[in-house]
Amino acid sequence: MATLEKLPPPPPKPDVMPFVAPGHTSGTVTDKISDVILRRHTPKWWLLGFTVAFALLMLFLTCVTWLFVKGVGIWGVNWPVGWGFAIINFVWWIGIGHAGTLISAILLLFRQEWRTSINRFAEAMTLFAVACAGMFPVLHLGRPWLFYWLLPYPNTMNLWPQFRSPLIWDVFAVSTYATVSAVFWYIGLVPDLATMRDRAKNRIARVLYGMGSLGWRGSARHWHNYETAYLLLAGLSTPLVLSVHTVVSFDFSIGIIPGWHATIFPPYFVAGAIYAGFAMVLLLAIPLRVAFGWSDFITLRHLENMGKVMLATGLIVFYGYIMELFFAWYSANTYERFMAWNRVTGPYSRYWLALIFCNGLAPQALWFRKVRTSPFGLFIISLIVSVGMWLERFVIVVTSLTRDFLPASWGPYKGTIWDWGTFIGTLGLFLTLFFLFIRILPAISIFEMRTIVPGGEAGDEITEVV
Amino acid sequence: MDSVNAKGKCGAEAAPKPGPARLELEELRERLRTKKGPELWRSLDELAETPEFEDLIHREFPRFASEWPSGVSRRGFLQLTGASLALAGLTGCTKQPQEKIIPYVRQPEQLIPGKPMFFATALTHAGYALGVLAESHQGRPTKIEGNPDHPASQGSTDYFAQAALLTLYDPERSQALLHNSRAGSWGSLASQMGETLRSMAGGRGVRILTGTVTSPTLAQQIADFLRANPQAVWHRWEPAGNHQSQAAAVRAFGRPVDTRYDFTKAKVVLSLGADVLCEGPAGVRYARDFAEGRRVRAHHDSMTRVYAVESAPAGISTVADHRLQLPPAQVEGFVLALAQAVGAAPGGGTPVPADAKAQKWVQEVAKDLQANRGASLVVADEYLSPAAQVLVHGINQALGNTGTTVFYQEPVEENPVDHVRSLQQLVADMNAGQVQVLLMLDGANPVYTAPADLPFLAALEKVPLRIHHGLFQDETSDHCQWHIPAAHELEAWGDARAFDGTVSIIQPLIEPLYGGKTAGEVIAALLGNQADATSYDLVRAYWQPRLPGLTAGLADAAKDSAGGGSITTLLGFSGAFPGAPGIGGTAPPATTGNQAASPNPGNPPAASPAAGKVPNDNATTTASAAAPATGGGGAFEKAWREALHAGLIPATARTGAAVALNGGAVAQAAGEVQAALARVKPGDLTLLLRPDPTIWDGRYASNVWLQELPKPVSKLVWDNALILGPKTAERLKLTWHETVEVSLGGRKIKAAAWILPGVAEDTAVLSLGYGRQRAGKATGQGFNAYPLRTTATLWGAPGLAVRSLGGEYLIACTQNHHAMRGIVLHEDEEAAEQQAARHVVRTGTLAEFQRDPEFIKKDREAPGHDESLFPIRTYEGHAWGMAIDLNVCTGCSTCIVACQAENNIPSVGKDQVLARREMHWLRVDRYFAGDMDEPQIHNQPLPCMQCENAPCEVVCPVAATSHSDEGLNDMVYNRCVGTRYCSNNCPYKVRRFNFLRYSDKNTPVLELVNNPDVTVRMRGVMEKCTYCVQRIEEAKIQSKVDRQPIPPNWIQTACQQACPTGAIIFGDQNAQDWEVSKWKADPLNYGLLEDLNTRPRTTYLAKLRNPNPALAALEKPAGGAENGHA
Q1: Confidence of residue B70 (pLDDT cuts 50, 70, 90)
Q2: Across the interface, do B1089 and A256 touch by the CB < 8 Å criterion?
């Protein structure tokens, strides 16, 4: 680790903006971030946004209640398309989560300091996205009350799950991921919770923050333990960024259905996940910096960096699409060829074309610096990419199943209002959690921001520990 | 049980129930007191405490509880309560009937709980009997199988017979005798009828209306009634009866005779739009005979050649070697041209048909038919015009087929009349006010089914006393003062004739669920002196003097079959193995007790068995002819038992009719056809009306098994549609699901269009039976075609006008859904291309097969066993497998209903089928090949493939589907959590998921239909074909009990057993003496998608054609590009 210390600092570029706008000190940073939480007055935009999000959450609860009452038949899933919105949404949400982990873990290890102002809410986004994702496989079950049969728990019948099934791998991958992400996020919060405890004027808030801060007093010993734990968790999370979506892609690539059974899936899923995740981070960051006046912390430089990541991963994903078609042709396999041809020209060609536009063509605008540094442009592109990534999962799940091996069993698929309700409902859950999060917890890591403020008190603490 | 006993029991065992139950006890006692019979309830508390009864008490009148209009009066409430008590009989419905009935395999005293018993009986469809064995579990019928000894069945059934079971338990059945829509009583009905009759001298003004009657007992009763009331008249109206065939026979031979075919002797068959395989009175038998000639094994070198000339595809067209699609008038023109070509009709006139291709056909077919004189067969059925049918008689005569492949027999229908004229007469008399009493028996529903030019309803209103008798309340019963619920054929005694005249006694397996009466009982009440006679009394009384002479040969036949194993082997699903120690084994059931009928000289049999030209199906027929017996009591009992046991009365087949073809009629018919052809202008649309393939003339509308059975070829469910060929639809600018106005001769109806490749140009097909106004859940489903049907145009007419209404009526189709989000796709062509590229249905010609028996496997990739890293799994004991012969499958779909009945498969309803969630474990895939305007059609029954490398098993996270050591791909419903991954990963898509709660567990009567050996699945659970694992297990248990191996071919799956053509074989492929091993070794055997290395246990025998080389050149090449797109 000492070698890291000797690394020269990144060469300053005159045209590159700093990570924090000039003029900030530790104090102003702390004030600015904690102020939005501790102030009595709840902003109107927050109330409005929360109301909408909460209404959508109620929609979600309605849909789920009806689902439990009637059964999974209220959705559009059918024969031959046994998987529909639930799996599409699962993959979509879990992909979104990846950006948070990538930002907090991998960028930490790579000492990308710009991550500091976005990692907290990106991690929160990960958690909430995983929460949304994690529900779908359970809701999707025909008998959801028996979901625990997928867990290897001791039982009188000596029955184990069937370990050859990728769905079991999913259970392990996703639950590990959720656990590690939660712990990582919480550990990172502890020093800030202490700050909040110290600054809160309301007694209840003080008690609650105090409980959350686990008795943090900021001693050197605390800092030492904290840094060690944080780094270890970062190390633990790093492989998860790659493994989770790899395992999720196995759900498809282990199957024998043409269009699923492809070795390209793991890398292309992981790239897609990061792609979608950064799009979502941008979708959250851009309004946040406006609402809280945080453009000092989440600067154009951040946005531009994220745009670059999106461009890179987007190109990988686009390459994946091209390779899928190429290999379908190159394999000379009747089923694969037909599948590829059917995706492009079949009944779902509109989805495929939209997907190519959203994920392949629209992000090419990110080659231009002007776009990368335009919050509005980035926001639009992120929106397009988010839609595109959902379409990608739709195309993979649905077009492959609607027309598989036997022409006699071909059949169309279409989501019902309950499918849409559940999907939009999870957006409500996600946003509700996020609104609560930005209101009661510091959405930007205060203590880490303090370390990167020019002339900050302690210099780079993380680097010191390393 | 008398009321004292009942009271005692109640006091001793059951504390008086609080609430409503107690209130009703007095009434209950009253009811018990008035009922007769040895045992009505086993105990009162059983009656009072069963959940069904409590349910009845609480819900007052379950059937109508949800339908009763609000604001029901106190009086209405009391009526309903009373009626619900009457329905308490439901709880007793698992009782044996009171009379002695004889089980087919086991005597009742051998009843072992959990072991089913089989009773030979018969079920009728449109009047004609099919001999069946009904399986009974503890007194409730649960499954219908064919009777191997019955000439019409030979062990198989059609789907109507399979589905009869559900009709028995249909909760929508009429459950109470109604007088002016209120509960009435049988006694008051009988007295009113008696009174009315007495007031009318000689029965003047009394009319009886029935469908086709083949029951000797009923016919005799009606004859007795007519003798007693000479002014009364018996009218007949069978909506889809053999009206035109009969008319043709009268014209050709001077009197009504039935035509019968012998497909086994035919080397060349020409079908003229006929649908005689699997459909119609002899369909099952014909299908079997037909299949015999088409089955190709390595050692065979011949195969019947089949030509089909038709306007719309049917079962036979899917197996035909050559298919010519012609508009209806042109088909008749073809008949004329053929008649001229073979010298049956005078030549001359303009050459018909004008089409060069058709002309070539005429030449070549005529040549082929003439080359096989006496061994050829030209088949026409009801739907060809009488004139054309006369020509067909002439053609068969000219080809020397009469007496070898075509036979004429005395009509099976009792006292045959012209139904159309009979109904016309009735309507005219009703309008003239000459009808005082109209009695409509056995579900006759003329208000719905009468031709449009006979306004039956208006006439009916003029009849003072209208009595309707039927299983259901229907359009007609709504306009009658009295409605008598009919007893189902599984509930009451009766008799009926099969297509060849053979009589079967219908024995009940269960007490009438709702106190229904048979038609015979109604007539008996009418006769006055037998008001209390039961159906049992009536049937026995009829046969008492007649039977003893007829059954003498039966015992020998039974002995033969027991010795040779035919009956028991064919039964093959229950009971001890032949010769095994233990119950039933020492004395094979067929020989139990009563086989020693000594032949006594005496009364000759009622029907002379002079076989004449009629081929004899039963060896026993002739045997018994020589052994008439006296009608003594003992002899009768013996004969009665034997007849019940065998399921038929031998020597009752109709005699051959000595008829001579009227040459003048043929010449006249030729002229008529010529004239009719000239009348049809090119581009003129012709409407074809047909009985619906599954719900027939509308009588099965309430049967959800039949409603949800994909109709052969079209694969529509729950609806009918105006079916058009692609070219016609294009010309009319119509598309799938589009609503249209159909008008013919000034009459108009609304319908929805459907495009089906294979329907000839300028032809539209619409089936009868839908658009019912009063048919329970089927009310308003589909489009009523009867308003287009007149007495002159029974089966359609030219001059059809179709106009788009621009709307959309979604029609459910189980294959290749054509509408998606408003966009209409044409998948058929793409599916056909891909089918060919993927070698789904492998086809070839007989010549190719003879050149190289292995040709079917050429150029088809199938991974070898050594290409896997994993060791090949071996199966030491049994290895269950199935093979399906595509060569003989006509796509009749009986297997689907058989599977549904055996495996408690729920029906899901139209909406769920539209959502693509049908539950059938077995489907029959239909593929088109070649030119979409004139395609070949292939059928492929698709049960679970039971793959050895099953893709479903590896992906199930909870091991709910796993492999058995006998090679079965087991499905553990209890363990399934419903991820549906298995279904996704199944390349054959044979798995079915309970997306919602499809199994009806709330209707008590529907619980009775379930097979107790099969789990009823809950919502959220995956299910699929199990190879009828319950039958396998039963045989294995028996094998353990008997300490001997399962005899070869002992186990039959439900689909196999029902299949009329014997296209399905199941068994132990490890054992060489099982038939399935031979099929698996056949060079034509191939595995579906075997290149995926799934190693399916279900395999197919490739479909062969035997084309006429002279015609083959005319055809466009079939099959698409080998590699599809890209």
Answers
A1: low
A2: no
Q: Residues of B with CB below 8 A from A138's CB? A: none
How far is the C-alpha of B116 from the C-alpha of B136, rounded, in Å? 5
Residue B553 exposed, middle or buried by CB count within 10 Å (0-12, 13-18, 19+): buried
Which residue among A70, A81, A149 sits closest to B958, beta carbon to beta carbon? Answer: A149
- The strand pairing partners of B117, in sequence order, are B136
Distance from CA of A426 to the nearest CA of B (A): 20
Strand B117-125, strand B268-272: pairing: unpaired
Q: What is the pLDDT of residues B834-887, one digit of tens each?
A: 888 888 999 888 888 888 888 888 777 666 666 777 778 888 889 999 999 999
Measure the CA–CA gap between B882 and B865, rounded to whole angstroms: 20
Q: From CA B171, how far away is CA B916, in angstroms rounded?
A: 26
Over the stretch A320-372, which tens digit does the pLDDT of each residue have? 999 999 999 998 888 999 999 999 988 888 999 999 999 999 999 999 998 88
Residue B104 has pLDDT above 80, yes or no: no
Residues of chain A with C-beta less than 8 angstroms from the C-beta of B922: none
**Do B989 and A406 make contact, defined as CB atoms within 8 angstroms?**
yes
Chain A: residue nearest B988 by CA? A406
Write the residue in A137, A256, A335 that is nearest to B985 by C-beta. A256
The pLDDT tens digits for B1029-1041 are 999 999 999 899 9
Residue B513 or A15, more confident: B513
Smallest Cβ–Cβ distance between B980 and the set A82, A147, A411 belongs to: A82
Which 3-state string (H, E, C) describes B373-438? CCCEEEECCCCCCHHHHHHHHHHHHHCCCECCCEEEECCCCCCCCCHHHHHHHHHHHHHCCCCCEE
Contact call for B958 and A408, based on CB within 8 A: no
Q: ipTM more than 0.95?
A: no
φ, ψ of residue B950 to 5 degrees: the values are -80, 120
Q: Quote the pTM value.
A: 0.85
Which of B383, B445, B452, B311 shows the shortest CA–CA distance to B749? B452
Rounded to the nearest 5 degrees, what angle is found at the Cα of A171, between the Cα atoms of A126 and A400?
90
CB contact under 8 A, B916 and A161: no
Contact A171 B957 (CB under 8 A): yes
Q: Is B912 touching A (CB cutoff 8 A)?
A: yes
Q: What is the pLDDT of residues B380-390, one digit of tens each?
A: 888 999 999 99
Question: Given this model, what pLDDT does residue B944 score?
Answer: 94
Q: Which of A68, A78, A79, A153 to mutate to test the interface with B (most CBs of B within 10 A)?
A: A79
Where do the H-state alpha helices sit in A20-156?
Answer: 26-38, 44-70, 85-101, 107-109, 119-139
Any CB–CB contact under 8 A between B988 and chain A? yes
For residue A412, the chain B residues in CB contact (below 8 A) are 817, 820-821, 916
Residue B936: strand, helix, or coil: strand
Inter-chain residue contact A255 with B955, CB threshold 8 Å: yes
Alpha helices in A140-218 (DSSP H): 166-199, 203-212
Dump pLDDT digits (tens) for B176-212.
Answer: 899 888 888 888 888 888 788 778 777 888 899 999 9
pLDDT at B890: 92
Cα–Cα distance between B1082 and B1104 in angstroms, integer?
A: 13
**Averaged pLDDT of chain B:** 81
- Reported as half-sphere exposure (CB side, CA atoms, 13 A), residue B663 has a value of 4
B834 CA to chain A: closest CA distance, Å?
7
pLDDT over 50 at B142, yes or no: yes
Asked if residues B938 and A408 have their Cβ atoms less than 8 Å apart, the reply is: no
Taking only the tens place, the pLDDT of each residue in A200-249 is 888 898 999 999 999 888 889 999 999 899 889 988 888 888 889 899 99
Chains A, B: CB pairs < 8 Å = 201
Contact B786, B772 (CB under 8 A): no
